[in-house]
Structure formats: structure tokens, C-alpha cells
Amino acid sequence: MKNLQFEFYIDGTLEQVWKALIDPEFTKQLYYGSIIESSFKVGEPLVYVGPGAEGERTTHVYGTVLAYEPNKKLSFTHFTGKAYNPDTEKYESRITYELEQVGQSTKLLLIHDQLKEDDPSYAGSQKGWPMILSNTKTLIETGKTLVFD
């Protein structure tokens, strides 16, 4: 199994960082136009949908909520959308966001673990997570996002 872990410190409150993770208004800015849809109840589905290979409602990532503790922890199973990998069910992994107050800042820890050795999404995740998390930090601290293209 492969694991990815990233830690960022953000000049923002727990509530601000949490909102950036779960509010569609923010996820749309952070995840390239994708919004998050979920009841956030453990055992219920979670999906990121937005513009992509299958039109405006392309499923980019989906899974099942494993943990939901407001302003503290969100964890869910991770599968890439079928448009990216028709065999996605073979490659379940897990994403966990953990927040912690550190002084007047918030520590955002992202753990993307349980990736299979041959998971085709590993390289994209390894490259993409630092960009998404840097964008999260920048959006919270400045009110604008980074330009990557």
C-alpha cells in the first residue's frame, strides 16, 4: 500500500478551513469547478461533481463517508470517476482531513492512504494534492485562488 500525507498551516480559524472543505461554494474554487455533494452522515455517499469528460456533471471522485466531526475531521473512501478509470472499483483508497488549532492558525493535515501499489490515480494525487492544499491556504488567507495554467 502507498500513502500520501501533507500538512499545511493556514492563517484562518477552524471554522474557515472546515467551510472550505465542505461548502460547495468553496470546493468549486478549489477543485477546478467541482462541488461536493453529501449529507455528511457516516455511511452515506460523498461525490465531487463538476465540468469534465462527461459534461457539466462529471463525477471526479466518489466514496462513502467514514467520519464526520465538524471543524475537526472528515474521512471518506476514495474512488476516481469512471470517466477517468473504468476499473475504479479495484482501487479503493481513503482520504482523511484533520484540523487542529495551533496558536492563531489552523493545521490542515491531509492523509490519502490505502492506495494500492498499481493505483493509476496515485501519480495524479501526488501531484495534485499540494496544488489543491496550497490553493486552500491561499483562498482562506487572501480571498483569491492561485492560477496554475
Automatic annotation (TrEMBL):
Alphabetical list of SUPFAM superfamilies matching this protein: Bet v1-like
InterPro entries assigned to the protein according to its UniProt record, in alphabetical order: ASHA1/2-like_C, START-like_dom_sf
Similarity comment: Belongs to the AHA1 family.
Pfam families xrefs: AHSA1 (PF08327)
Start and end residues of each Activator of Hsp90 ATPase homologue 1/2-like C-terminal domain: 13-138
CDD domains tied to this protein: SRPBCC_CalC_Aha1-like_GntR-HTH
Record-given protein name: Uncharacterized conserved protein YndB, AHSA1/START domain
Source species: Seinonella peptonophila
Domain of life of the source: Bacteria
